[in-house]
Structures are given as structure tokens and as C-alpha cells.
Amino acid sequence: MAENLTKEELKQYDGKDGHKAYVAIDGTIYDVTNVAAWPNGEHHGNGAGKDLSEAIMASPHKKSVLAKLPVVGKLI
Question: Are 21 and 13 in contact (CB under 8 A)?
């Protein structure tokens, strides 16, 4: 089920205490909950529950990893 979330609502999906881990990239929200590289909602200093559009462009993989992730909604 697709969800439209504000940045404030997205913060709840931080991957901690049993919460799902979502990240927003260019307005699309991806679920990284079951991604091994995102334990406890953390990945190379980046935290889930945030808009990481700028951070992903500074990463070595850029947006190439996004195709593997489930889309859960849009950032509004």
C-alpha cells in the first residue's frame, strides 16, 4: 500500500525499536527495513526516516541501488 508522508511523518520510520526503515530520494519513499546494509536504520552515517536525496549522490553507488528497493510512497 502506497503511503504519502510528510518529512515529519517520515521521521517515525527510522528503523529503531521495531519501526520500519524508510528513506526518501527525490520525492519517492523506499523501504530499507530488510536491507542488510541498513542495520537498525543506519547506513554509513546516514539514518532512515529522512530525505537522503543529497546524501545518495555523494555515495559511490549513487542511485543504482534504488531499483532493488520496494517503493512505499511519495514524500509530500
Answer: yes
Separation of alpha carbons 20 and 12, rounded Å:
8
Structural domain harbouring 51: 3-75
Q: What is the CATH number of the domain that holds 20?
A: 3.10.120.10
- Which backbone phi and psi does 54 adopt, to 5 degrees? -75, -40
Number of domains in the chain: 1
Q: CA 10, CA 27: separation in Å to the nearest integer?
A: 12
Residues 20-36: tens digit of each pLDDT: 999 999 999 999 999 99
Whole-prediction pTM value? 0.93
Measured in residues, the chain has a length of 76
